[in-house]
Amino acid sequence: MNSPVEAELDPPFEVIEPTACRSPVVFNSPHSGCVYPRAFLDSAKLDLATLRRSEDSFVDDLIAGVVPRGHPLVRVHFPRCYVDVNREPYELDPRMFDGRLPSFANTRSMRVAGGLGTVARVVGDAQEIYHQRIPIDDALRRIEGLYKPYHRALRRLLTRVHRDFGSAVLIDCHSMPSMAGAKDDRPRADIVLGDRYGTSCVPIVSEVIEATFRACRSRGGDRSAGPRPSRQSTDSLTSSQLPAAFPSELVSPPFVTLPPESPRPNCRFASYPRQP
């Protein structure tokens, strides 16, 4: 990266450690970054408000309470539409770059086809981000300067936790669009649990998490006492990237609409009403 971008993204991500780790569970918010480099905004044909629709806004704030409870938290500050750390390192769309792509680049994945590679071509409803093709060297700088240091730091953290506890579990936290406005009247999940069809972690991890949420919901006979979980297979980290990864998604409340320069309040789960 060039120095102005380095200064704007300082630090590009954080590893927030508790005073003492109490378990092998690590929490991660890879898509809540909201620091948009000026050079990126200048090259984009979309305004900031439109670009921000791809964020998992405030997820890092929502899960910040895990740190005082003894769990490490990783949070990314750069936006996923700038570089997406939940991709292979070189999922690149040849349609969006000037210059020769590396011979080892994956140009045929489903995510690349959809415009959502490591460096995204689109956001939202397939809205093109850039005025024109961007230099491949720009994409490679983002990968070398942001993607790879993030994954090195995450792997170091998980290796240390695995050494200390004999296992390591990554809870990868995201958000997903609310179903508000849809004509489907069926009850909607508040939290979606995904383990990539059982490939990203052993079954007991997802089973315990689901059972815990359901127990919170039914405790004392109050069916509104906790979030409504749902099991799906979310497509997040590849199984080769991490020893055990468990993607989970929070359903965005229907009223959350972000202005371009919206502040980041000290959010907690209780700040949002549960969905009916």
What value does the Rg take, in angstroms?
19 Å
* Helix/strand structural class: alpha/beta
Runs in which pLDDT lies below 50 for 5 or more consecutive residues are 235-243, 251-261, 265-276
Indicate the proportion of strand residues.
15-25%
Measured as a percent range, the helix fraction is: 25-40%
Number of domains: 1
H and E order: HEEHHHEEHEEEHEEHEE
Total strand segments: 11
CATH class: Alpha Beta
Biggest beta sheet attributes: 7 strands, mixed
The coarse overall form would be globular
C-alpha termini separation:
46 Å
CATH homologous superfamily identity: Zn-dependent exopeptidases
Quick check: average pLDDT? 82
| CATH topology group | Aminopeptidase
Number of helices: 7
Which helices and strands occur, and which strands form pairs?
Elements (H helix, E strand, L loop, with lengths): L2 H6 L4 E4 L8 E5 L8 H6 L4 H4 L7 H4 L10 E4 L20 E2 L11 H4 L8 E2 L3 E2 L5 E2 H30 L3 E8 L14 E4 L8 H16 L10 E4 L12 E7 L25
Parallel strand pairs: 2-3, 2-8, 4-7, 8-11, 9-10
Antiparallel strand pairs: 1-3, 5-6, 9-11
